[in-house]
Amino acid sequence: MEKFTLEIVLLYCQNCVGNSLDFAEDCAKAGGFTVRPAIMPCSSKVEVSYLLKLLDDGADAVQIVACPKTNCKLLVGSTKIEKRVEYARGLIESIGMGAERIGLCFEKELSSKQLVDIAGGRAELMRPLGANPMKKGVTL
Amino acid sequence: MIIAEWKPIDELVENLKSYKKILLVGCATCVAECAAGGEKEVETLAPLLHMAMKNKGYDVEISTKTLERQCEWEFVDEIAGLASGVDAILSIACGIGIQAVAERYSKTPVYPGVNTTSLAIRQEPGLWLARCAACGECVLGETFGLCPIARCAKSLMNGPCGGTRKDGKCEIDENIDCVWTLIVEKAKERGCLDSLRKINKTKNWSNSQHGGPKRVVRKELR
How many H helices and E strands in chain B? Predict the structure, then answer.
């Protein structure tokens, strides 16, 4: 098996972050994993199919960051994504991929460093699962 | 609407493991409404199935398409090009759609990705309740719009039975209303409880599945 760095896709709600984010610097500082951040208009815009496609394309894990449920500007966005994440985790667990490849947390006013730290937390949680077997270059 | 539910992934993998190129076809009508076979579900099942198969050592290529209606030939014809280039087709439409695809593309193996289970209504998000059994002789006029065939566990025509719970639920499931209790309540509400004492004609079950495959002919439309 080739050596690899864990790749964490970070999907975060635009309303749960502070004004200025500097991912270039904070991502570069991340050790043992890389982060692919993507801003979402609301966490509820994340569909189950997106999560599975990201994993199928080789991401080692997907971390979603939503607003606290009482703070959601769309009122039910954070509640919706919580249910979808639970469903998606069940699906990937059922095929032996490990539920920890998908994670969700509820936060607000985050800096880019805090977002990268959250991605790092996900990397540590899923590290025992090993590399995503869908990743190119990984042999089963 | 027609209700279907995904088959277990292991069953799909087992059925498809000998193929390299698979076309996953959905239907944007009933099974989309019941969140089992529409475009969203096609795009969810495709990566899931791909990962499940790869995890078991089967490297497959899965293409996707969602037809407007898989039970109409005009729409089924849309996948002619795609169907000719694959080893197998997985359909997540209802049983009607699956058979239409299998009939039109008879040289390609077609597999069901769902189990078609009932005719139901979406009561609230994420909850579907059976409402019709397609029994072929509708009695809703005598039962205040409440179907004793689809909604009574015993399909009784003279309920309620002795198994109704004290809270009016069915003995087989505490979450399902005893439809005959509802019928009686509705009769009381309308002041026509006596109408339930009427002896009805024996139900003609030959109009349902018991009478063999159904064939409906409308000469004026042919």
Answer: 8, 9
E-assigned strand segments in A26-135: 33-40, 61-66, 102-106
Interface of B with A in 55-74 (CB under 8 A): 55, 57
Q: What is the DSSP letter of B31?
A: H
**8-state DSSP, A68:** -
> CB–CB of B108/B130 below 8 Å?
no
- Cβ proximity of B27 and B100 under 8 Å: no
Q: What is the pTM of this model?
A: 0.93
Is the confidence at residue A7, as pLDDT, over 70? yes
CB A92 to CB B51 under 8 A?
A: yes
B48 to A91: CB separation less than 8 angstroms, yes or no? yes
Looking at chain B, the whole-number percentage of residues with pLDDT higher than 90 is 92
Length of chain B: 222
Of B44, B48, B54, the CB nearest to A133: B54
In eight-state DSSP terms, residue B7 is P
A39 Cβ contact list (under 8 Å, min separation 6) = A12, A14, A17
Strands A6-13 and A33-40: parallel
Nearest chain A CA: its distance from B28 CA (Å): 16
The Cα–Cα gap between B78 and A138 comes to 37
User: Do the chains contact at A96 and B55, CB–CB below 8 Å?
Assistant: yes
Residue-wise pLDDT tens digits, B145-192: 999 999 999 999 998 999 999 999 999 999 999 999 999 999 999 999
Tokens representing residue A55 in the block? 């994993």
